[in-house]
Amino acid sequence: MISDINRAWESLEKAEHERELALRDELIRQEKLEQLAARFDRKSGLRETWLKVKIRDLSPKIILSRLLTEDSGKHLMGVVDLLQKHSLIEADINVLGENVKVVIQHLQSFLDTKSKGGYQVCDPQYIQERIKQLEAAYIELVQLASDRHNHLIESRKLWQFFWDMAEEEAWIKEKERILSSGDIGHDLTAIHLLISKNKAAEDEISNQSKQIQALVQTGEDLIAANHFSSDSIRERINEIQTMLANLSKLQQQRMKRLTDAVDYHQFFTDADDVDTWMLDTLRLVSSEDIGRDEANDTTEDLKNFASTIDALHQQAAALGDEDRTAPDVLDRLSSIDRRYKELVELAKLRKQRLLDALSLYKLFNEADGIKQWILEKEKNVGLYGHEQ
């Protein structure tokens, strides 16, 4: 009986000892789990804080890029620089994404109660909410970065368009400077050379117009895609089209001016020929030498030459608006008309002198004939007397 009691007491003491060891192990396990939960909260908080800092660093850029055009770059090189900087931000976001995955996997491990002996560090719903918050924050970060990248790409398209437009504008202005030259040549050879250059300029403008039209179409495509600077693009397109139209008009005006200059100089070349003929005729009608025989009459030649002078007047009337009323043209016509009239009068006087001279020469011929007849008669009479 006593031995049974002793065995029962020993069994009780052993059970109490085992229970004490089990309780101590459980307390140790609970303490470790609490430490692990604290470490989780601390690491999770640090990760979440770092992610929020990243979002805070990027969000103002996205907001300002939608509100202030300066954030999209003030010129092409500026936008290129912003895109290079943005690529670094995207690289950081990619690294952040890997860290977020690690944090989420770590959080999800606390949802596995089997490996923890059925013990839960904290409410699973709380862990799931924290996971959703991290995922949502990262998705927002990625979306903001994508929006920023797309905005910068559109800005680069805009400034590339403006850059190309500026080059075309510079080309047009240079051509305007050349075509605005007042040089129309001093003779027909120089004018024809300038006309050849103007035709080359016309071909060059035609070819450049195709390039400008392609650039204009690029702008139209940007406008059709609802680009954020559509108004500025439309204004630039209108400006370059107006400049190109004015350039073509300037080229046509210069071509007409050069063509008129050809007619202008041709008029004076023909007028010189008229003056040369009249000068030669003046020497003839002014000559004191009327010869000893019958001479040709120049009045008929002058009469026929009147058609040449009439043609010169018609040629002058067909000149350009400025040239036909130019003082040098009018003075030249007036001088030719005056000299022609003088020639006609001198020709009439010379004709009369020639007629008088002709009458005199006829009289001399008749006198010489009579004299010869007399001499022959006298000779005959002398021979007859001698024979007697």
From TrEMBL:
Residues 198-253 form a coiled coil. It comes from the Eukaryota. It holds the Pfam family Spectrin. Keywords: Coiled coil, Repeat. The keyword Iron does not apply. CDD domains: SPEC. The lineage of its organism: Eukaryota, Metazoa, Ecdysozoa, Arthropoda, Chelicerata. This is Spectrin beta chain. PANTHER family: SPECTRIN/FILAMIN RELATED CYTOSKELETAL PROTEIN.
